[in-house]
Amino acid sequence: MSGCIDHREEEWILPKELLTDSEEEWTTYQERFFKPRKSQHKSGFSIDTDTLTMLRNVIGDTKAKTTLTAYIENILLEHLKEHQALLNKTAAQYKRNQTLNL
């Protein structure tokens, strides 16, 4: 179904070429951050309750079909990919092996 937006609750599909800039931007955001993630190796971590509430509100208020865990993982992985070169360059000053290879 690539190329179309599926508004399930409204039961209509809009071709991508008819989207406004904000709708296209929203579609891109959904594709990047609301995609499901599968992991066999999970670990717990602490997060500020206000930040957690904000993330839960984003998922709930946008009716995103994703889990909180997948949303957080996607945000973190996008951040690491975006800053990979800088992080590797800085880490190389202190060690011999590349830190990230995404």
Mean pLDDT: 80
Strand order of the largest sheet: 1-2
Tally of distinct domains: 2
As residue ranges, the low-confidence spans are 1-14
Main sheet record: 2 strands, antiparallel
Structural class: mainly alpha
Compute the number of helices.
4
> What is the terminal separation in angstroms?
27 Å
- Name the helix and strand elements from N-terminus to C-terminus, one letter apiece: EEHHHH
Query: Helix proportion of residues, in percent?
Result: 40-55%
Give a verbal description of the structure.
There is one protein chain. With 102 residues, the chain is mainly α. It has two domains: 1-33, no CATH class; 40-102. It contains four helices and two strands. The protein has helices at 21-33, 49-61, 68-82, 84-92, and strands at 4-7, 12-15. It has a two-stranded antiparallel sheet with strand order 1-2. It is globular, with a radius of gyration of 17 Å. 1% of the residues are buried. Mean pLDDT is 80; it is low at 1-14.
Q: What's the short story on this structure?
A:
With 102 residues, this protein is mostly helical. It is built from four helices and two strands; from the N terminus they run E-E-H-H-H-H.
Topology:
Layout (H helix, E strand, L loop, with lengths): L3 E4 L4 E4 L5 H13 L15 H13 L6 H15 L1 H9 L10
Provide key terms for this protein:
2 domains; two-stranded antiparallel sheet; mainly alpha; 102 residues; 8% strand
